[in-house]
Amino acid sequence: MMTEQKHAPGPWMARSFVGRSDRSYITDAKDFTVAYLEGDNQAEKAAYIVRCVNAHEELVALVSQATSFLENIEIDGHDPRARTQQPLLLRRLKAALERAKGAR
Fold this sequence. Notes:
Helix content: 40-55%
Strand order of the largest sheet: 1-2-3
Largest sheet: 3 strands, antiparallel
Radius of gyration: 20 Å
Shape: elongated
Number of strands: 3
Number of helices: 2
Low-confidence stretches: none
Number of domains: 1
Structural class: alpha+beta
Strand content: 5-15%
Distance between the termini: 12 Å
Mean pLDDT: 83
């Protein structure tokens, strides 16, 4: 049984302080710090993480909807690619969805 992971409430924000030491960090919707970033390109890394986290739930929902749609459509045979592409696409969508949900 997989337990649902909880994370800090979104949307997350990428922030930076400029001063004695420039540093980027990520905050949640309640303005609590989620992470500090180190190394080169901190601001870009923070922005990338925030973009991924903030889009995650919507993407999971859309992939779930697309998977359900593809599972339930009938292939009419007019396009010969449909018979091979639908199962392939379904397998890839399901695998990506499982990874996004945290399944191994």
